[in-house]
Fold:
Amino acid sequence: MKVLKFGGTSVANAQNIEKVKNIVANSSKNEKAVVVVSAFGGVTDMLIKASLLAASQNESYKNVLEEIEDKHLKTIQELIDINNQSKVISNVKRELNVLETLLEGAFLIGETTPKLLDKIVGYGELLSSYIINEYFIKEGIDSVHKNSKLLIKTDDSFGKAVVDFKATNELCENYFGTVTYQVIVAPGFVASSAKGEATTLGRGGSDYTAAIIAAAVNTETLEIWTDVSGMYTANPKLVKQAFAIPHISYEEAMELSHFGAKVLYPPTIQPVLSKGISIHIKNTFAPEEEGTLITKSSNGKARAVRGISHVENISLLSLEGSGMVGIHGISKRFFEVLSEAKVSVVFITQASSEHSICIGVASDDAEKAKSALEKAFEYEMTLKKINPVMVENDLAIIALVGDNMKSHQGLSGRMFSALGKNNVNIRAIAQGASERNISAVINKNDVKKALNTLHEQFFEDNVKQLNLFVMGVGNVGEKFLAQIEQQRKFLKKQLKLNIRVVALSNSKKMVFDENGLDLKNWKELLNNGEKTGLDAFYQKVKELNLRNSIFVDNTANEAVAKTYEHYLNDSISVVTCNKIAASSPYKNYLKLKELSRQYNAPFLFETNVGAGLPIIDTLKHLIASGDKITKIQAVLSGSLNFVFNNFNDKTDFHEVVKQAQDEGYTEPDPKIDLSGIDVMRKILILARESGNELDIEQIENEAFLPQESLDTSNVDDFYKSLVKNKAHFDTIYKEAANKDCRLKYVAQFENGKAKVGLQHVPQDHPFYNLEGKDNIVLFFTERYSEQPLLIKGAGAGADVTASGIFADIIRIGNF
Ligand code: ADP
Ligand code: ASP
Ligand code: MG
Structure:
C-alpha cells in the first residue's frame, strides 16, 4: 500500500485536481493507494476568518462563507459533468448548511471556543476529500472516501491535538487491512477525541495525517506532493537561488522544518522515523523532477550545511541579575514555569557566567511567558536580586542545519562574519549540542538579506552577488553601465561575481528593480521611473535591505557626496568618482573613513586621482606593506595636460580648452580644471591617503589664469575672458618654448606641504613627453628612494573613469 498526500495548492482548483488524478491513477495501477488531501488552497484560512468575524459579531462572516461555497461549487462544476453533478452539489450544500449553523452559533453568542473552531476548520478537508473522491470515481478510478476522523484518535487539546497512537494504529490496521478499493481518499488534518468530538492536528497537519497512516499500514515510502520540487536549501520564496536538496536525513529535515521550512509539518517525521519509512517530497506541478528523499542517513559526501531556515515572529526574553549566579535550580524553575504556562521555547542561551538566561519564544506567547516568569520570581525581584524580565519583539531566528556540520571547523565564524559584513545585527546565538544546528536571533527586517547572504556563503559556490545603486548616468555613468552589461557574463564565470544594477537615478528620476534592471533598456526604464530625491533614493535602498549593497556616485555633485555617511552607516559600500567628499574638510574625510572601518563597508574613490589608473590602490599597498611616502610629484590633470599639449603658437588657448571640454576631458565647469582646484583636490587626496592631515586651504596654488578669468561666475563668461586674455596665454607659451621647455601643470607634496602650478619642464624630465591627456605620478618612498615608483597612463575620459569605478566594485567583490 502507498500513501500520497496532496497539499492545498495541489488541490486548489479543478485544473490542479486533474493533475492529482493523473498522479494517483498512475501510482495506484499495481498497488493500493491512500490519498490524503488538504483543504482546497486558502479554504482553511477562510474558515478561520469566518469564525473570527462571527465571534466578533461581524455579519461579514456571511460573505466569507459565500466565497467558500462558490469555490467548492465552481470546482465541482468544472470537474464533474452536468449529469452527475446534482448529487455531489446537494451533499456539499448540506454540509455547508451545517457549517453555516455553526457559524451562526458563534455569531449569536459572540465567541468561538477552541472546540467549536476545530469543528469549523475541519470542513475544508472534509469537503475537498469528498469532492475529489467523487471526481476519481467518475474518472473510472476504483476509489472510496474514508473520513480520517474515524481513523485518527487524539486527546482533546483542540487546535493541535495529541495523537493516541495505540487507538489510531488499531483503527487503521483494521480498516486498511480489509478495504477492497484500490484508492482510498481521506481528509488530512482532521481527527476526533475519544468522545468522538472533532479535533485537528494543527496548521499544516495534513502531512502528519499522511505520516500517521503510512506508519500504521507500514508503507515503504510516504509521498508528500506539494507546490515546490522538494525541501529546498532555503525558502524559495525568499531566496531565488535556493534549490531542492536531493537527499537529506530525518534529523536534518526535522531541524529544517522545525526552524520554519513549511514544506513539511514538523511532527510528520516522528511516526515514519521509528518505522524507517522514507519520505519523498514531490512537486505536483513538475512530477518529473526528482524531489527530496528523506531517509535515515543522508549522502555522506554532501555539503556540511544542508539548508538554512528561519522562523519569524520571535520574541526574546531575558532574565538577569546578580542573584542568579551560583544558585541551584534557577533554570529548572525558569523552564518549569514556562512549561506550566504552555509556552514552547524555541531557542535557549545561557551565558557561562550564569548571570543571565535568554530564550526565544513565539511572539504570541511573549506576554504570557513574561507574566508567568515575573510571578514565579517575584520574591527575588522585590529583593532586586533578579531584574524584571526584558522582552524584545520583532525578531526572527535563522538557522544553519546539517548533520555533518560538527566535523567542519569555522562554519559559525563564516556565518557570523558574512552576516556582520552585511550589517545584520545578531541578538543571540545558540548551537545545539548535536551541532546539527547553529541559530541566531536577528531583526525581522533583516531576514531576507540574512538568508540570501548565508545562502550565497554556503551554497552558491562562491558566486557573490553585488547589488549596485547607481546615481548619475552622464558621460561616465553611461559608459559604466555599458561596461557592466558587456562584462557581466565574464565576471560571473571568471571572478564569481554576479553584478546587478538594482537602481538608477539621474537628477530627475529614479528606477528600482530588486531583481536587477535590464541594462539593455535602462534609458527607457529610467524615463518611466518615479521622481527622484537624495533622501527618497536612500530610503528605498535602505528599505530593500539587500546584501552586498554598493552605492555608486557618478556625479560631481556636492549634495550627493553629503549622503555617503548614511550609506556607510548602514554598511552599504560607497564607490565614487566624485572628488568632493575625499577632498572636503579633513574632519569629514576622516569621519567617512572611520564609518567605513566601523561598519565594514568599503569607501573607494580610486577614480578621484588619475581616472582608471591604479594610483590610490598602489599607494595603499605601499603603506600597508610598511613603506613611507617621502615625496609625490605628479601631473594629475588629464585636461590641463591635453590643453598644454595642444596649445602652441598656432592655436588659440580658448579653442583648445573648448576642444578638451567637448571631448569630455574636463569637469562640466572647465574653470575647476584651469584654476587648479581639481589638481589641488587630487594632491590633497594623495597626501591624505599617504597618512597626512591636510586641508585644501593649506595648498599653495600659483594660478596661471588672469584674475579676471578666475572671477567669472559662469562657463560662458569664463570662455569670454579666455578670448579676451589671448595675449596673456600666448606669453605663457612663448616663455616656456624659448627655454626649450614644455608647460606642465605639476602637483607636488613633500615635507607635509603641497603645491600646484604651471612649470617649465625640460627635455630630460620624465614629465616632458607626457602625451595627450595622460597623467603621471612619481612616488618617492623609503623603498623607492633613488628611482621613484612611476605610474603613467590615460588620466581622463569617461571610458577610463568608468573602468576605474568598475575596478573599485570588483575590489569590493573580492573584499
Ligand atoms: P502544502 O499546501 O502542499 O502543504 P505548504 O504551503 O504547506 O504546501 O508548503 C510548501 C511551501 O513551503 C512552499 O511553497 C514554500 O513557499 C514553503 N517553504 C518554506 N521553506 C521551504 C523550504 N526550505 N523548502 C521548500 N519549501 C519551503
Ligand atoms: N488545511 C490545513 C491548513 O491549512 C492543513 C494542511 O493543509 O496541511 O493548515
Ligand atoms: Mg503544508
User: Anything to note?
Assistant: The longest helix spans residues 82-109.
